[in-house]
């Protein structure tokens, strides 16, 4: 759809700032390639290595909430470089339905710059990977992050060049901004993330009529009826499905607000937000991210599941009967190993849910949203207990014909994480020869 046609369409649906999916009936003649996107799903505190990495299990591992067990895995050959993705480990098992569209990339390292907190640096510098001691005037090796650099190319035509999501619902702000943000405009210049679903919804889908906010989809659908005669059957169905997804998000947020109001009347030791169901909250924020990518509001997004090091507990519904601090648990790994494995599995389940959502959304050219999105699961720590910066847990989903799925790529020891960021930028069409402390690309991954 060209810019003027799209603008006229939006003007004809009541002036609502509600972006629509791409519709073939209103597109310019000829095949239109779906836009390329990039999204990052950041997990704090690292992972329990024996549950995530192939070959590192040395005992029987509980299978999350399934009540099953998996016997220890065989040791992996550290000398291999590329092989088909083998049996998925317990933490990665939620990705089983998508194994052909994911790549496990091991051996990626970052270098720690002495003088700053290990947790703060692993989060804030995750997407910049600047060479230690090269950024002047700051104790942090923190430069402009990958998302903003990539958005300079693939985000110029979208309403939001980038969008920053966070699932930290706490209000205590006990740590500095470096523990709670992975997106930066530049050194010392934070790209603030949005934590509240209602705030993000209003940013994405605001209307001029505040009193009609809750029925925004009804308003748009009513004004869009005149358009239906111009649309092909497939586009009518696509439009209906899109607005139904928006309405479902509105209903989810209404339920979430009702729950907040109820919890606010109860006395807890922790902030009331800590008692909101983590899965519902994360998935609702994730749905907002998916819709933003689908509708063309942005092509670049970051999604931080939780903050680094905060000891304020969350209640992980269906996992525990009381709030738990992920950070405190990570420093008592030998005693609470099974509970930490449950949290790792829980985070992977949320990532897998969003992978499925992206793969269910068809694009105009017959591909899916996932096919046209590099969606990366990762953490700035390889292990939350030892605080190691080497061998980070990285899974990349999507990418379609541009990268190869169904692989386990094991990089040589000492390979900079920036090699992956360089490769992703090149896949997205940026003519980079290097990025931060990179030493080359990951050729085995590129199709």
How would you describe this protein?
This protein is an alpha/beta fold and 447 residues long. It folds into 2 domains: 40-74 and 89-103 and 110-388, no CATH class; 409-447, no CATH class. It contains 11 helices and 12 strands. It has helices at residues 3-11, 49-52, 118-124, 146-154, 197-205, 216-224, 233-263, 278-295, 326-330, 337-359, 418-427; strands at 37-42, 61-62, 69-70, 82-84, 102-109, 163-166, 184-186, 189-190, 300-304, 373-378, 394-398, 407-416. An 8-stranded mixed β-sheet has the order 4-12-5-11-10-1-9-6, with helices on both faces. A hairpin with a 6-residue loop joins strand 2 and strand 3. Helix 7 (233-263) runs antiparallel to helix 8 (278-295) and helix 8 runs parallel beside helix 10. The longest helix has 31 residues, at 233-263. It is globular, with a radius of gyration of 22 Å. The chain starts with a helix and ends in a 20-residue tail after the last helix. Residues 1-17, 59-75, 207-213 and 266-275 have low confidence and may be disordered.
Quick overview of this protein structure:
The protein is of the alpha/beta class.
Major sheet: 8 strands, mixed
N-to-C CA distance: 29 Å
Beta-strand segment tally: 12
Order of helices and strands: HEHEEEEHHEEEHHHHEHHEEEH
Q: Biggest sheet: strands side by side, in what order?
A: 4-12-5-11-10-1-9-6
Write down the Rg: 22 Å
- Integer average pLDDT: 81
Shape: globular
What structural category characterises the helix and strand content?
Answer: alpha/beta
Low-pLDDT parts are 1-17, 59-75, 207-213, 266-275
Number of domains: 2
The number of distinct helices, counting runs of at least 4 residues, comes to: 11
Tell me the helix content: 25-40%
Oligomer: single chain
